[in-house]
Amino acid sequence: MSKKSLSAQLLALEKNAPAKATGLSTRTIEADLHGESRSFELTYLYVPAQNGSPDGPPVVLIHGTPSTLFTWVPTIYGDSTTPGLSSNRDVYAIEVIGHGMAIGDGRPYRFESCARFVEAAIRGLGLEKVYLVGNSYGGEFAWRTSLNAPDLIAGLVLMHPSGYARLDDEWLPEEIVMRDNPLAKIGWLLNSKKRVRTALEPHFDGIPPDRDTEIFLVCENAHNWKAMIDLVRDESGSRQLELPKITSPTLILWGSEEMAYPLDRFGRRFEGDIPGSLMEVLPGCGHYPQEQRPDLVAKTLREFFAPLDPQSR
Fold first, then answer.
1. What is the pTM of this model?
2. By CB count within 10 A, which of 31, 87, 96, 291 is most buried?
3. What confidence tens digit (pLDDT) does each residue in 85-117 have?
4. Contact 157, 250 (CB under 8 A)
């Protein structure tokens, strides 16, 4: 499936109707991902503060792998009974290179190149200070960005991030196949909704509407599949010893039902390694709290950002 067709089908999903109504944006940015500066097309969703006067720096949301910026739609917009994150803040959700609708560059995808893309996206959007939020692999993209460009980060939120070396028995079955099978890079040819549901079900108490279709569509694109395989194989804890160097105010969000990165093994380690970090455990949530309890995630983020806002100091 082409990126153009993928974009149209993702926007057609009912869960993404608010983003479709807002409209996606694109712009050209300059990024040095592999030792040379190049131009890249950035695809992003920008939702201005609904109250017309944002309370502080904009929020930039980073998805994981093989997810897309649409994972954040429920958290951004809220619903008729619960305000979303954009109720009082400007919010950007960006598509990371090689993921979802974003065009790739044909090079191997690495955590460091994705982090450099995130930094370039923030600068390319003309943002001087942001609250940076990342989920799963997007969490590692985010904390690496905070190490690479601390001047950009007013606050950091990590939701189930990768970053530490995992023992052999800590990999999920599908991850073992992706890491070890030499044919894994053409696995997209065997993509099916059944396989996607099997991979997602352990992370949810009932998969949210359209979520399995969304990931199935993403994995129909060979470039997105390649990015997933490259990153699973690159997950090695290569910068874990640098985590104590993070200087940004940091909130660590962990679902109580997380199974990919158990709280006691990984979440508490981030809490201990990042100076001054705060930990919040979200009850009843697995690996994707922004989709299971977007109301709780939006509320928790607002409470963390409020005392960091310039007018609160």
1. 0.96
2. 96
3. 999 999 999 999 999 999 888 789 999 999 999
4. yes
Domains of the chain: 15-165+238-312 (3.40.50.1820)
| Beta carbons within 8 Å of 187's beta carbon, 6+ residues apart | 177, 178, 181, 225, 229
Cβ atoms within 10 Å of 157's Cβ, excluding its own: 28
Is the C-alpha dihedral spanning 260, 160, 286, 193 positive or negative? negative
Q: Residue 188 has which token pair? A: 């997209």
**Inter-residue contact 271 to 246 (CB < 8 Å):** no
Q: 23-39, pLDDT tens digit by residue?
A: 999 999 999 999 999 99
Question: What is the pLDDT averaged over residues 213-227?
Answer: 93
Positive or negative torsion for Cα 264, 153, 97, 203: positive
DSSP assignments along 146-192, one per residue: HHH-GGGEEEEEEES---S---GGGS-HHHHHHHH-TTGGGGGGG--
Q: Residue 189 CB: number of other CB atoms within 10 A?
A: 9
Beta bridge partners of 31: 38
Residue 3, SS3 per DSSP: helix
Q: How far apart are CA 251 and CA 274, in angstroms?
A: 10
